[in-house]
Design brief:
The complex is a heterodimer. Chain A is mainly α. Chain A has helices at residues 3-22, 28-52, 68-91, 93-107, 113-134, 143-148. Chain B is an all-alpha fold. The longest helix of chain B is centred in the N-terminal third of the chain and has 34 residues, at 104-137. Classes of the chains: A mainly alpha, B mainly alpha.
C-alpha cells in the first residue's frame, strides 16, 4: 500500500469527474476535446490508485511527500505576497516594495541592516524607473499620489 | 537563402540588438552560475521585458540568456562543486576534481571552449535546417499538425521515465488547463466560472513564470541555497598544449553533434544530452577509468553537448510552431506577446524576425565566448550572492513581470497560484515540463483536431491514409514503445 499514491489518485479521479460534468452541456465542438481528455485522466487516475494498492506494479517511490515545515513556509510566503499585492494598491508601489524587500531579506536571514536598506531602496528606485519610464507600465502610486495634490 | 541571411545580418548588427544580446548573455551566465536557478527560469523572467523591445531584439536577448545560462552552469560546477543548472551535472564530475588538483584554469577554459563549439554547431544547425524544415512544413495541413502534436505529447512518456503515470497525468492536466476559455471552433466560453479575466483563456506568460520561476525561488527559501562555498583557486595552465588539444577535435565535434541531435528531438533537452555524450565519450575512451577523476574529456563531452542542444531545440518551435522543450515553450511566450505565431508562415511574413534570430543566435555564442574567457571567476563570485537577496528579487520580478504584460493585477494572482502549484507538483514528483507541453500544445492540438474532423466530415480515415500524418503517428507509437522497453530494462537492472 502506498497511501500517498492512493490519495493523489482519488483527488485526480474526483477532479476528472467534476471537469467532465462541467463540460457536459457545452456544444459538441467545444465539448469533444475536453471530454476525451477527462476520460483519459479518469483512466490514468484509476491506474494510479491500482498502483497504490500494489495491484499494478509501480515505480520505486522517490522521496516524496511534503513536510509540515514546508507547508507553513509556503503558506506564510503566500499570505505575505497576497498582502503585498493588496497593500500595493493602497499604499503605493514604492513604499510597500521597500518594506517588502527589507522585511523579506531580513526574514530570509540577511542581517546586515545598512546593506539591506541600501539594496532595497536602490533596487526599488531602479525597478520603478525601468517599469514606468522604459516599459511604460503604470505602477500604482497609492497614497503618494494624494500627497502630490 | 543567402538574401535572407543578409537580412538577418543586417538586423543583428544594429547597435540595440548587439547591446541587448550582450546584456542577455551576461545576465544568462550569472543566472546559470547561481546554483538552483535554471535557464528556463531566466528566460521566463525576462520575457515580459521583451514586450517593450522590438521582437527581434527581445528574441536575441532571450537567446543570450539561454546560451549564457547553459554555459554558466559549468562555472559553479567547476569552481563551487555545485552544478549551476542541471545541464552541468556531468561537468561537475571531472571539473571539480580538476579544481582540487589545482587545474581550475584549464577546466574553465575547456568548458567555455567546448560550450562555444557546441553553441556554434547548434547555431549552424538552426540556420541551415530551419528554412528547409519550414519549407517542408508549408505542405502541412491540420491532419499533419494534429499528428505532430501527438508526437510531441508522446515524448512525455520518454521524459518522465521515473514515473510514467504521473508524467501522463501532468500532460493531460496541462491540456485541460489549455481548454479554459473560448473554444477554437466557435469561441464558446468554457470553464471560466464567471471570471471575465479568463473568458478568452489564461495568459500564457504568467503561467510559465509561475511554473518555472517562482518554484525555484521558493525552493531556495525553503531548502536554503547552497551554503557559502569556497570558490576554487584559479591555478594551473590556461590550456593543455596545442598538439594535445588538437587530438581532441573529434571529441568536440562528436559531442556537439550529439547535443544538436538530442536538441532537435522534442521534449528532450539540455539535461539529457550531456549524460548521453559523457557516457559515449567514456565508452569510446581508451582508459574509461579516468572519467570522474579529473579527465578533461569529461568536461568537453558534457559542455559541448549541453550547448549543442540550445539552438537545435528552437528548430521545431520556429519552423513548426511546436515547442520542443520547456525553454522553447517560454520562447513561444516571447513570440506570442508580440502577436507573432511561429511556424512556416513566419519565415514568409516576418523574415527579418526569423533570420535576425537565427544570425543573432550565432552572435550571442560569440559574446558568450568572450564573456566566459574574461570573467569566469567574477561570475562565480556573483553567484555567491546571499539566497535571501536572490529569492526576494526573483519573486518581485515574477509578479511585476506578469503584471506588465497587460497591466492586469489579475495576472499577479495567476502567477502566485501557479507558483505555489508549481512548487507542490515538483515536490510530489509531478513534473512541470509535461504540464507546459500540454498547455502550449493544447490549443494547437484541439484546433487542428476540430478542423481535421470538419474537413473529413467526421471520418478518421485521413489520419491513416495521409503519409506524413501516418509517419508522425507511427513515430509516436515507436517512441512510446521504446520508452517502455527502456523503463523495463532499467527496472530489471536495478
Amino acid at each position: 500500500m502506498k497511501t500517498n499514491r492512493i490519495i493523489m489518485g482519488i483527488i485526480i479521479l474526483i477532479f476528472s469527474i467534476i471537469y467532465f460534468f462541467l463540460g457536459i452541456n457545452y456544444p459538441q465542438q467545444a465539448r469533444i476535446f475536453p471530454n476525451v481528455l477527462t476520460i483519459l485522466l479518469l483512466i490514468f487516475s484509476i491506474i494510479m490508485i491500482l498502483q497504490g494498492l500494489n495491484i499494478i506494479s509501480s515505480p520505486k517511490q522517490l522521496k516524496s511527500g511534503i513536510n509540515k515545515r514546508e507547508i507553513t513556509f509556503l503558506f506564510s510566503i503566500a499570505v505575505a505576497l497576497i498582502l503585498y499585492v493588496i497593500l500595493m494598491n493602497i499604499v503605493g508601489f514604492i513604499p510597500i516594495t521597500i518594506i517588502y524587500l527589507i522585511s523579506g531579506m531580513w526574514y530570509l536571514g540577511y542581517r546586515e541592516w545598512w546593506k539591506n536598506i541600501l539594496i532595497s531602496v536602490l533596487g526599488v528606485i531602479f525597478i520603478y524607473y525601468i517599469f514606468t519610464q522604459i516599459m511604460y507600465v503604470p505602477l500604482p502610486s497609492g497614497i503618494v499620489s494624494y500627497l502630490n495634490f | 537563402m543567402i538574401d535572407n541571411l543578409l537580412i538577418g545580418l543586417n538586423t543583428v548588427f544594429e547597435i540595440s540588438n548587439l547591446t541587448f544580446g550582450l546584456f542577455g548573455t551576461i545576465l544568462g551566465i550569472i543566472i546559470g552560475a547561481i546554483p538552483g536557478l535554471t535557464a528556463t527560469m531566466g528566460v521566463a523572467l525576462l520575457v515580459p521585458v521583451t514586450f517593450v523591445l522590438p521582437p527581434v531584439t527581445g528574441l536575441i536577448m532571450l537567446s543570450g540568456i539561454y546560451c549564457g545560462a547553459i554555459y554558466g552552469g559549468s562555472v559553479s560546477a567547476i569552481l563551487l562543486h555545485a552544478p549551476g543548472t542541471p545541464a552541468s551535472i556531468c561537468t561537475m564530475k571531472d571539473g571539480y576534481v580538476l579544481t582540487t588538483q589545482g587545474r581550475a584554469k584549464e577546466a574553465l577554459s575547456l568548458a567555455i571552449l567546448a560550450s562555444f563549439i557546441g553553441g556554434i554547431f547548434s547555431s549552424i544547425a538552426l540556420i541551415f535546417f530551419s528554412p528547409l524544415l519550414a519549407n517542408f512544413a508549408l505542405k502541412f495541413g491540420p491532419f499533419e499538425y494534429f499528428a505532430l502534436c501527438i508526437f510531441g505529447m508522446s515524448m512525455i512518456v520518454t521524459i518522465s521515465s521515473d514515473d510514467v503515470v504521473k508524467g501522463i497525468i501532468s500532460g493531460i492536466i496541462g491540456l485541460l488547463i489549455a481548454t479554459i476559455g473560448s473554444d477554437p471552433a466557435r469561441g464558446f466560453p468554457r470553464y471560466y466560472f464567471g471570471v471575465m479575466n479568463i473568458y478568452s483563456g489564461l495568459e500564457l506568460v504568467p503561467v510559465l513564470i509561475g511554473l518555472f520561476a517562482l518554484p525555484e525561488a521558493f525552493k531556495l527559501i525553503i531548502q536554503g541555497g547552497t551554503d557559502k562555498r569556497k570558490i576554487g583557486k584559479l591555478k594551473g595552465r590556461l590550456l593543455p598544449p596545442a598538439n594535445e588539444l588538437l587530438k581532441k577535435w573529434f571529441l568536440f565535434i562528436k559531442s556537439s553533434i550529439i547535443g544538436v541531435f538530442i536538441g532537435i528531438i522534442p521534449a528532450i533537452g539540455p539535461v539529457v544530452a550531456p549524460f548521453v555524450s559523457y557516457n559515449e565519450a567514456q565508452r569510446t575512451s581508451k582508459d574509461p577509468d579516468l572519467f570522474g577523476k579529473g579527465n578533461i574529456d569529461g568536461i568537453i563531452a558534457s559542455e559541448a553537448a549541453n550547448n549543442g542542444v540550445t539552438g537545435a531545440s528552437l528548430i521545431p518551435l520556429i519552423t513548426l510552431g511546436i515547442p520542443g522543450s520547456a525553454v522553447a515553450a517560454v520562447f513561444l511566450g516571447g513570440l506570442t506577446i508580440h502577436g507573432l505565431r511561429p511556424g512556416p508562415m513566419l519565415f514568409i511574413r516576418n523574415p527579418e524576425v526569423v533570420y535576425g534570430l537565427l544570425v543573432g543566435f550565432l552572435v550571442v555564442n560569440i559574446f558568450m565566448f568572450i564573456a566566459g574567457i574574461s570573467g569566469a571567476r567574477l561570475f562565480a563570485k556573483v553567484s555567491q550572492l546571499p539566497t535571501s537577496i536572490i529569492a526576494s528579487f526573483i519573486i518581485l520580478f515574477s509578479m511585476l513581470g506578469s503584471f506588465a504584460i497587460r497591466n492586469s493585477a489579475f495576472d499577479i494572482w495567476i502567477v502566485l497560484f501557479f507558483g505555489v502549484v508549481g512548487y507542490l507538483i515538483n515536490r510530489l514528483n509531478f513534473a512541470p515540463g509535461p504540464i507546459v507541453l500540454g498547455l502550449v500544445l493544447g490549443p494547437i492540438l484541439e484546433n487542428n483536431l476540430i478542423q481535421s474532423l470538419q474537413i473529413a466530415r467526421g471520418s478518421i480515415l485521413p489520419f491513416v491514409t495521409r503519409p506524413i500524418t501516418v509517419l508522425f503517428l507511427i513515430l509516436s507509437i515507436l517512441s512510446i514503445v521504446f520508452s517502455f522497453i527502456n523503463i523495463r530494462k532499467k527496472r530489471q537492472s536495478s
